[in-house]
Write a structure and sequence with these properties.
single chain; alpha/beta; Spore Coat Polysaccharide Biosynthesis Protein SpsA, Chain A; nine-stranded mixed sheet; binds uridine-5'-diphosphate
């Protein structure tokens, strides 16, 4: 019996920390040391899940080095660079802790904030999100777009937090396992999860300037985030009933078209309007009607797509090359 409990403790840690790395050779060792210090101080069982997102520098080598030294480390090596969202999802899929923490691997997130995240989570929340209250990023390229995006997100999702953009968060396992990420959606996890009714809150975290290596993002992120924002709004509100959304637009257009057509028809038959004078209006009426029908059709297609979406929730957005784990017989070549 005791043996079983002991065994369970080894295989199922209380806390999993998930960190994606893409060309972070200069940051890994220090982050690992600082994580270890903070987590050892908690006196709770934990595992570190380091995802190598197809790095081309010495990241892989350094990670393996740490893996050899520490039984609590697991490495998920992806076949190529899949992006931060996919790397995080790969890590979440491997994580088995009751509590799962995600953070960046570039030392912009301070492990010293972890205890505060945990304390807040234990007050009865399902997600505690980090809030970079005093941001150090560039004003024009980072803070301004992010301010707009955060406002929009707060408004569209109804989740009352300030900082959707940071990955430094603590989750109860059920909460994070309830979503499957794709695109750039890791920024919208709270919004996506809010659909399911989990309790979300935030606490201020430190925000420090990146010292080593460089940011993997440029201005292109603004456009991608914008489109994901639309996707997220759509998912939150209409994924299980897209026809309600497209159908309504379709009905409005088709209704307008029908009305104009009707007026013209009445004009022709009862008031002797000439066809020649009304060519423009006729075209408008038919265009609106066609547009309306198209929207309804799109809605029906979206209904089918969303059925498929729900049916294929298990599709993976990444591909693993190898998992280094101390629990399995040997490291897995996939
Ligand atoms: N990252 C990743 N794959 C990528 C891009 C980034 O795993 O394709 C990781 C990166 O190594 C870091 C985290 O995601 O640990 C955040 O990236 P970055 O610091 O470049 O983002 P920023 O802080 O500039 O928003
Ligand atoms: Mg960073």
């Amino acid at each position: 019996m005791d043996m079983n409990i002991e065994e369970k403790r080894i295989t199922e840690p209380e806390i999993s920390v998930v960190v994606p790395f893409y060309n972070e050779e200069d940051n890994i060792e220090e982050l690992y040391q600082r994580l270890k210090e903070v987590l050892d101080g908690l006196g709770r069982s934990y595992e570190l899940i380091f995802v190598d997102d197809g790095s081309r520098d010495r990241t892989s080598e350094i990670l393996q080095n740490i893996f050899k030294r520490d039984k609590r480390v697991k490495i998920v090596a992806l076949r190529r660079n899949f992006g931060q969202t996919a790397a995080l999802q790969a890590g979440f899929d491997e994580a088995r802790g009751e509590i799962i923490i995600s953070m960046d691997g570039d030392l912009q997130h301070d492990p010293a904030d972890i205890p505060a995240l945990l304390t807040k989570l234990e007050e009865g929340y399902d997600i505690v999100s980090g809030w970079r209250k005093r941001r150090v990023d560039n004003l024009i390229f980072r803070r301004l777009p992010s301010w707009v995006a955060n406002r929009l997100m707060r408004w569209l999702s109804g989740v009352p937090i300030h900082d959707f953009g940071t990955t430094f968060k603590a989750y109860r396992r059920e909460a994070i396992k309830s979503v499957q990420l794709y695109g750039e959606l890791h920024r919208f996890i709270p919004a996506l999860i809010s659909r399911t009714g989990f309790r979300i809150t935030e606490i201020p975290i430190r925000n420090v300037v990146r010292q080593k290596g460089r940011s993997k993002y440029g201005l292109g992120r603004v456009r991608r985030v914008l489109f994901d924002l639309i996707t997220v709004k759509f998912i939150i509100s209409f994924i299980d009933r897209p026809l309600q959304f497209f159908g309504l637009i379709g009905l409005i257009f088709a209704g307008l078209g029908f009305l104009i057509g009707l007026i013209i028809a009445i004009g022709f038959y009862f008031f002797g309007w000439s066809v020649k004078d009304n060519v423009g209006n006729l075209i408008l009426a038919s265009l609106l009607t066609i547009l309306g029908v198209q929207f309804v059709m799109t809605g029906l297609l979206a209904e089918i797509v969303s059925r498929i979406y729900f049916a294929t929730h298990r599709v993976k957005i990444y591909s693993i090359k190898k998992i280094y784990s101390h629990e399995r017989e040997e490291t897995q070549e996939l």
